Amino acid sequence: MARKLGVGVIGCGNISKTYFQHAPQFRGIEMRACADINMDAARSRAKEFKLRAETVEGLLASADIDIIVNLTIPAVHYEVSKLAIEAGKHVYSEKPFVLAIKDGLDLKRRADRKGVRIGSAPDTFLGGSHQLARHLIDSGKLGKITSGTCHVMSHGMEQWHPNPDFFFQPGGGPILDLGPYYIANLVQLIGPVKRVAALASIPAKERTISSKPRAGERIPVTTPTTILALMEFDAGAVFTFNASWDVWHSGHAPMELYGEAGTIHMPDPNFFGGDLRYTRGEKPVKTLPRWDHPFSIANEKHPEGMMANYRTAGLADMALAILQGRPHRCSLELANHVIDVMTGILKSGETRKFVDMQTTCERPERLGPAAARGLLASAK
């Protein structure tokens, strides 16, 4: 397929570099322009990646742009995506998709009227390790999944991020910032969530920045940073999800799924690769060999060694789905359901009551090795 959809990026911060670097390895998309409210940032990124810099208004009016990638801060995701939809553009947003489910449902209505598609990160669940877990579950080797655990624990961003304020304000916190990776992966593995419950707290009302250039400055914390949640899935499985930025060290695995016939110990869903450990019945736990999946291959240097990074895969899959007339995997329905779950957890933390989900979705189609190779520009 020779045709490509033109892509324009709004928001030229740190994450934009990842999209621009990885886009050329995928079929169906061509990065053409970028925009930012700070034109100096737009010009800098444009020069770095040989694109053209536009104002936001200019980009939305550009005839050669089919898809807008929304990489703005979460607080304006809804407004920017709405502008793009009203301009007749398809939209692919960074996570979290929106900060309130009413906004996500409004974007769906607008997109349906305009006849455009919406997609959203995360796309890490398309990684080889997570798709191998999906293969094991779908093949029945674990039996029915009955329960599981998720843990995302650290001591927050004030130690390394130059401007960590927004992480500790409403719209931030570990649920909205990191929860999308975990919840999207669980939904693609076992299906949608039925209801949630949670306890939430703010152990430290202030944080001291230890990273430059603002080292020593104290910032207020106005959103929960420790959340202990329960999730009940439509399929009957029950999970705990513990998310905290008040933990110095944890020995918990990122994700574990417990089935009637076996257990999977999964790697961090924030990444595409990593070791998948598996046991059947009482047999010893073993690390499975890397699956013959292109998104398992380490392709990027990381402080802890080489890692697999294929961010932009979800965008490419959406573009090809538009061209091929099929559903895309990082769908609007999935994104809205993930937001529903996360905001439901936060609401439960405030009210101390169970919260039923307002939405549901189908599991995204699995991405096996052959389908993944079909997304790559190098595919024959």
From TrEMBL:
GO terms for molecular function: nucleotide binding; oxidoreductase activity. It comes from the Bacteria. Keywords: Oxidoreductase. Pfam families: GFO_IDH_MocA (PF01408), GFO_IDH_MocA_C3 (PF22725). Residues 6-118 form the Gfo/Idh/MocA-like oxidoreductase N-terminal domain. The keyword Oxidoreductase applies. Residues 130-264 form the GFO/IDH/MocA-like oxidoreductase domain. InterPro entries: Gfo/Idh/MocA-like_OxRdtase_N, Gfo/Idh/MocA_oxidrdct_glycsds, GFO_IDH_MocA-like_dom, NAD(P)-bd_dom_sf. This is Putative dehydrogenase. It comes from Aminobacter aganoensis.
